[in-house]
Amino acid sequence: MEQMVEGQTQDKQTGIEVQLSGQDGNVFGLIGLCTQALRRSIFPYDEKDRIKTEFTSAVFAAESYDEALQLMMTYFEVT
């Protein structure tokens, strides 16, 4: 993942694949699938913790279901 450079957008994509299609559409269940995939990833523990905190904070602050899904697609490779 790229780090934030002054005035530029940070690339938050982790490259972790998560299958959300065909799943229960409950936003909390989808968040759980994303965080489980992150937990299984090869990222170091402290990086996983940072990504999880950033991701969940952003999703819980989303103002709509669609915004929450867009954030999931920003952080994860959604299939």
Strand order of the largest sheet: 1-2
Continuous helix count: 3
Largest sheet: 2 strands, parallel
The general outline is: globular
Q: What's the alpha carbon Rg, rounded to whole Å?
A: 12 Å
pLDDT average, as an integer?
A: 86
Bin the helical content. 40-55%
How much of the sequence lies in strands comes to: 5-15%
Low confidence ranges: 1-9
Distance between the termini: 20 Å
Beta strand count? 2
Structural class by secondary-structure content: mainly alpha
Element pattern in H and E: EHHHE
Topology:
Elements (H helix, E strand, L loop, with lengths): L16 E2 L8 H14 L4 H16 L4 H11 L1 E2 L1
Parallel strand pairs: 1-2
Helix pairs in contact: 1-2, 2-3
Describe this structure in words.
The structure is a single chain. Helices cover 52% and strands 5% of the residues. It is mostly helical and 79 residues long. α1 (27-40) runs antiparallel to α2 and α2 runs antiparallel to α3 (65-75). Residues 1-9 have low confidence and may be disordered.
